[in-house]
Amino acid sequence: MARSQGPEDRLPPHNIEAEESLLGAMLLSREAIGDAVELVEADDFFRPSHRELFRVLADLYARGETTDPVSVGDELRRLGIEEALGGQEGLNRLVIQTPAIASAGRYAQIVRDYGILRRLIRTASDIAEEAYGLPKDVRALLDHAEASILNVARGTSHESAAHLEQVLMEVLEQLEQVAGSDDLGAFAVPTGFRDLDELLTGLHRSNLIIVGARPGMGKTSFALSMALNVARNQSEPVLLFSLEMNRIELGQRLVASQARVNSQRLRSGRLNEREWDQVSNAAGELATRPILIDDDPNLTVLDLRTRARRIKAEQGLSLVVIDYLQLMSSRRQSESRQLEVSEISRGLKLLARELDVPIIALSQLSRNLESRSDRRPQLADLRESGCLSWDAKVRLADGTEVPIGMLWSKGARSVPLASVTPEGVPTVAMGTRVVATGLKPLRRLTLANGSILRATGNHPIATSSGWREAGTLVSGDVVHVLLDATTVATTVVESVDELGTELVFDIEVPETHAFVADGVIVHNSLEQDADVVMFIYRDELYHPDTTDRGVAEIIVAKHRNGPQGTVNLAFIADWTRFADIAPSD
């Protein structure tokens, strides 16, 4: 009796004839190679020798060299892999047995499909193996499994690359749409605020927007006003994650804003007959708006990503709002809150790109701004922000050092830097942009190894006890330094001195969030992942007699793809509502 085959007895799905036919067509035609490399990659081939031949053909094609059987055979001999393919006779056999060069695209599709099936099997096996291992964090495994399956579904990695001609066609098509319409919706999500949309050209999809303010400025009301505006004009839902208020409190705010009744009277239920009518009408209107509220107070980036991804797949998404950033947590243990929040902001930026929707994250600002005479927020007021002096020497990947201010003055971008991974392993990471963040007071750290670093008090420094702000370090504390490309060492802080105010700088290093300045391993600021940073300032909170009562300044302090500036909105405190100020004639 024949034994039934279990999974361990089966060969993974493959089609050797399709692989041979595709490779034979590629040996006969450069056009066939062009078609093949658009659809398949080496790992799509089941037979190892076929993978090697595909790599050689693709490499010769990319170098502009001839790809006929003789030239390919010579390249295989040079690489020492000719025998694995049966020598020149093996190449000739592939050519002779090719059914039709014109069918190369179809052969490539077959090879690709079987490659996807094998990857799906491997992915499912890996997920099963992890599940049998009884992981401590089941939710993390679920997210990993979901992401792994989606990665297989998206196909091969080279599909994310597009030829410049295609990109330019898409750009021109978008410009034509914009030119023919006053509607921003073709490429962005309008905020519903006239002057802010003029400055930002709306909230661009895949962007992370941080909105920062001190308590009492109205950042939640601002976000809710935007959410209402977006939900009024978009068919896809707005998703609100609220870690500070529960859904009832948010609902009350939304009703008060829409009904234009006093929010305190609404919460107490002490409304007159006219106001009850307004509330009833407002509730009916709001019920038609596509707004979803998630008030889980223990939200992690993992939770957020999983829930947002599923809603996007099922219903679509126009906007995600998170209230607020510092209340979120990551599931993995971080050395410091600065590092944890930085990882969260990076995760949100990646999610915005994955979902292709704008994400607004509200952020609490440092109380340090209260000590300034002008209390309008600046980038350094983000709680986890920090900056360095002009002469702080940044170590490049080749070991040379350049003052950060000099990199900024040259408009340096895509600079390979010496860096360390989150685990503290030396590596190379790309510094995507150098930014000046304003005039800030500095501290001078003098180290036992002779290094001197001048940084703002809130710039995170790698120490023996994790990431710590420069202003918290004292004599005797141990900090981490990078001696060379492979060695992390320690040295001791000898003294910390307060200095005057200077123009300061930071570098965006999205990959690792760390770089080396004056030999010291330092961390990046929270704002580096954001495409737009906006602050809310209401002068009446500090100066009750101001002539700007009821006016909120929306300060666009960072705009990666456009101008900065300030726009004024009306803030109606009773209704917890932001609105456009009527244009003057």
List keywords for this structure.
585 residues, alpha+beta, DNAb Helicase, Chain A, Rossmann fold, Endonuclease - Pi-scei, Chain A, domain 1, 3 domains, 9-stranded mixed sheet, 5-stranded antiparallel sheet, 16 helices, 24 strands, globular, disordered N terminus
What is the CATH architecture annotation of the largest domain? Answer: 3-Layer(aba) Sandwich
Instruction: State the end-to-end CA separation.
Output: 94 Å
Strand order of the largest sheet: 5-4-6-7-3-21-22-23-24
Rg of Cα set: 29 Å
GO molecular function: 5'-3' DNA helicase activity; ATP binding; ATP hydrolysis activity; DNA binding
Keywords: ATP-binding, DNA replication, DNA-binding, Helicase, Hydrolase, Isomerase, Nucleotide-binding, Primosome, Repeat
Enzyme class: isomerase
Pfam families: DnaB, DnaB_C
Quick description:
The protein has helices at residues 16-28, 30-39, 48-62, 69-79, 87-96, 104-132, 138-154, 164-179, 194-200, 219-233, 247-259, 263-268, 273-286, 301-315, 337-355, 404-409; strands at residues 188-189, 203-204, 208-213, 238-242, 291-294, 319-323, 359-364, 388-389, 393-395, 401-403, 415-420, 426-431, 433-447, 452-455, 460-463, 466-469, 478-482, 488-508, 514-517, 520-523, 532-537, 551-559, 565-572, 577-580.
